[in-house]
Design goal:
The protein is α+β, with helices and mostly antiparallel strands. The chain is 24% helix and 33% strand. It has two domains: 135 residues, Rossmann fold, CATH 3.40.50; 159 residues, Tumour Suppressor Smad4 (Sandwich). The longest helix has 20 residues.
Length: 315
C-alpha cells in the first residue's frame, strides 16, 4: 500500500483569467480581443471547460482523502509533504513547472480538456482519476522517472529544470562567460545564452535550436544541403542519464571562441560556466523567467544531471 495523506491539486490561470489580469476587466479584455479580429468565445469556452473539470475532480476525490488546491504561482514557496500525491490539472507545462519543486512525490497529471490539449505528460482524463488513485494506493501503478537538470552556484544556490535551463543575459542579448566541459579546454564565449536540455525538453527548445541552425546553414550554403533533423535524431528518452547543452548564436572575436557549442553532459560530469557579466546575468528554468538565480561576475555554475527525478504516473 502507498501511504497518501493529502492530494495536492495544482491549477493554473486560464487564458481568460490571464487576459482579465492584463486588461483589468472582462469587458476590456473582450473589446481588445474582438478588436483584433479574434473570437472571444474561445477564451470563454476554454475557461468554462477548465472549471467544470476542476469541479468534477474535487467530487471524484475519495471522501477519506483530504485535498488542497494550489495555484501555479505559489509553487516556489509551497512546502510539499513526503506523502502528498500531486495532481496537476492543465497542460504539459504545468507538470513541468510542478515537478522541479517535488522530492519523490508521485504525480498523477490530469488533462482537463482533451479536445484542446494533446498532452504527452498528462495521460489521464478527469474520469480516469478514481481508477488511477486506486492503482497508486494499491501500489499497482506504473511510473516513468523524468531526468532533471541542476544548476548549482558557488554561493550554494541551486535550481532544477525539468525541460531546460537557460544561462545568459536577462535580455537574451549578448552574454559573456567562460565555459568548460569535463576535461575540455576552458573557452571564453560571447553568445545569446546556453541552453541545457533534458530528455523531456528535447522536443522543445532543443528542437527549435537544431531546426533553426540547419535551416540557416541550408540558406547560407546553397549547394550543400543538410536534411532537416528528424525527431529520432534530436529526441532522447525522458529518463536518459544525460543532458544536452547548446550554445545559441556564438560570436567569434579576438576574445571569444566557439568550439564548445554542443554536446552531452553525462551523470557524474559537469559543465562549468563562469559569468563575466557585471549585471543582468541569469539562470532560469522551464521558461519561468521571474524565478531565476542571479548570474553576475564572480558566479560559477556547475551544470549536471540532477540528484532527483520527477515521478510521473502513467497508464
Amino acid at each position: 500500500m502507498v501511504k497518501i495523506d493529502k492530494i495536492i491539486i495544482i491549477t493554473k490561470k486560464t487564458w481568460l483569467e490571464e487576459l482579465i489580469e492584463k486588461f483589468n476587466t472582462k469587458s476590456q479584455a473582450k473589446f481588445y480581443i474582438e478588436h483584433m479580429g479574434v473570437s472571444f468565445q474561445d477564451y470563454e469556452d476554454a475557461h468554462k471547460k477548465y472549471y467544470e473539470s476542476l469541479e468534477k475532480i474535487k467530487k471524484l476525490v475519495p471522501l477519506d482523502l483530504k485535498y488542497q488546491i494550489i495555484e501555479k504561482s505559489f509553487l516556489p514557496n509551497f512546502l510539499f509533504g513526503p506523502n502528498n500525491l500531486i495532481v496537476p490539472v492543465g497542460q504539459d507545462g504545468l507538470v513541468i513547472n510542478t515537478a522541479k519543486y517535488l522530492d519523490k512525490q508521485l504525480i498523477v497529471a490530469i488533462n482537463p480538456d482533451p479536445s484542446r490539449f494533446d498532452g504527452v505528460m498528462i495521460p489521464f482524463t478527469v474520469e480516469e482519476l478514481p481508477a488511477a488513485l486506486k492503482k497508486v494506493i494499491a501500489d499497482k501503478h506504473k511510473i516513468i522517472q523524468i531526468t532533471m537538470a541542476q544548476a548549482k552556484l558557488n554561493n550554494g544556490q541551486f535550481l532544477y529544470g525539468v525541460n531546460d535551463l537557460f544561462i545568459g543575459h536577462k535580455s537574451h542579448g549578448s552574454a559573456r562567460y567562460t565555459i568548460k566541459h569535463s576535461d575540455a579546454t576552458i573557452e571564453k564565449q560571447s553568445s545569446s545564452g546556453v541552453i541545457i536540455s533534458t530528455g523531456a525538453g528535447s522536443t522543445a527548445w532543443l528542437k527549435s535550436i537544431i531546426t533553426g541552425a540547419v535551416g540557416i546553414v541550408n540558406k547560407f550554403r546553397k549547394y550543400s544541403y543538410i536534411d532537416p533533423p528528424t525527431e529520432e535524431e534530436y529526441r532522447f528518452p525522458w529518463d536518459a542519464s544525460y543532458l544536452n547543452y547548446s550554445v545559441r548564436e556564438p560570436f567569434v572575436s579576438k576574445t571569444s571562441s566557439a568550439e564548445l557549442v554542443y554536446g552531452q553532459i553525462y551523470s557524474g560530469e559537469k559543465l562549468i560556466i563562469e559569468s563575466n557579466m557585471p549585471e543582468k546575468g541569469v539562470i532560469f528554468s522551464d521558461g519561468i523567467q521571474n524565478d531565476f538565480l542571479e548570474f553576475n561576475s564572480g558566479a560559477v555554475a556547475e551544470i549536471s544531471v540532477a540528484d532527483k527525478k520527477g515521478n510521473l504516473v502513467i497508464k
